[in-house]
Write a structure and sequence with these properties.
With 325 residues, the chain is mainly alpha-helical. The chain has two domains: 147 residues, no CATH class; 123 residues. Helices cover 65% and strands 4% of the residues. The chain is built from 14 helices and four strands. The strands form two sheets. Strands 1-4 form a two-stranded antiparallel sheet. A two-stranded antiparallel ribbon has the order 2-3. A hairpin with a 5-residue loop joins strand 2 and strand 3. The radius of gyration is 26 Å and the shape is globular.
Length: 325
């Protein structure tokens, strides 16, 4: 089992490093980091497929694929593939025809020209390669341990001639149990949050461009965005918690909890919500939106104050006195 896990780790790591080097070379020529965003989802898909194919190779058997790919393994593979495809297609659509990346030029302005290439390689592409390897750990760990040897069902017994016979151990697959069902349900909720949140935001941006902010409003605060300032980030984190729960059905799957923890931290603090809001919070209308709306976990918005605080004419017994103690 540990050998299979190491093999999956090695296969995934080699693919990520080689792909990151190729994208680094490409980004230097087209002057954009869009390749990084698009590769994130596609890389998850390729890692999942490679782990599936590695299971056939490592099995050392000529069985046809549906005898080695158990229902549990197919469930474990299907969810990250759907996640990755949706993310990559969405990022491809969003970045198509965008031209030179302003973030690329902004970062380049702060680095010496002779150090720029390796600065980008280290701080953008290799950092993402390491992050992808960590985040996909439930996939390559659980994929490697979906089949295991089960102890003999019967104790040794004696034949008529006195020969002791032991029942042979047999290979069994991890079943789809309660953890897998709960994990798939959590993943589905997260998928809906991310997909619907992205669709609502894209629709809002198109309508604002077409009709103007006076008609649509300056801030997207409708639909899921009424309950969370980042419902798409919340949904993405929820999907990885669901994948981790499914991985927990397999031996050693629980040890990959670093994946959803790291992804949640990244989406909230490292590269997600808090980083984005450093600039957005400078806009008065967004600052008001922040006061009444939960940042990450969806919750009911706060009600606005109906009376100005500490009015000068508030007297004991008046409504203003009790509303604004």
């Amino acid at each position: 089992m540990l050998g299979d896990i190491f093999s999956n780790f090695l296969i995934s790591g080699i693919f990520i490093v080689l792909a990151s080097l190729a994208l680094w070379w490409l980004s230097l020529r087209i002057k954009t980091f869009a390749t990084v965003d698009i590769f994130w989802g596609a890389g998850i898909v390729v890692i999942t497929v490679l782990c599936l194919l590695a299971k056939l190779h490592l099995s050392g058997t000529s069985r046809i694929f549906w005898q080695m790919w158990s229902p549990y393994m197919l469930l474990l593979a299907a969810l990250p593939v759907l996640l990755g495809l949706r993310v990559s297609l969405y990022m491809l659509w969003r970045n198509w025809g965008a031209g030179v990346d302003e973030n690329y030029l902004g970062m380049q302005a702060g680095v010496k020209p002779e150090k720029w290439r390796f600065y980008v390689l280290r701080n953008v592409f290799m950092d993402q390669a390491l992050a992808m390897l960590v985040v996909t750990s439930p996939i390559w760990v659980a994929m490697a341990s979906t089949f295991f040897m089960q102890a003999p069902e019967f104790a040794p017994y004696k034949l008529a001639d006195g020969t002791m016979v032991r029942s042979a151990a047999k290979m069994v697959s991890v079943p789809i149990g309660m953890l897998s069902i709960i994990g798939a349900s959590v993943w589905l909720i997260g998928f809906l949050f991310e997909a619907i949140g992205d669709w609502q935001l894209a629709r809002f941006m198109v309508r604002r461009y077409k009709f103007g902010a006076d008609v649509t409003g300056k801030v997207m605060d409708k639909g899921l965005w009424r309950y969370s300032r980042h419902p798409n980030y919340f949904g993405n984190a929820l999907m990885w918690w669901g994948i981790w729960l499914i991985a927990c059905q397999a031996p050693l799957g629980w040890a990959t909890i670093i994946s959803p923890l790291f992804m949640t931290l990244a989406l909230v603090k490292l590269t997600g919500a808090e980083v984005l809001e450093k600039s957005l919070s400078q806009r008065p209308e967004y600052a008001e939106y922040m006061k009444r709306t939960s940042m990450f976990i969806p919750w009911f918005p706060k009600r606005p104050n109906r009376v100005n605080k500490n009015p000068e004419n508030a007297t004991i017994g008046s409504p203003a006195y009790y509303l604004n103690p």
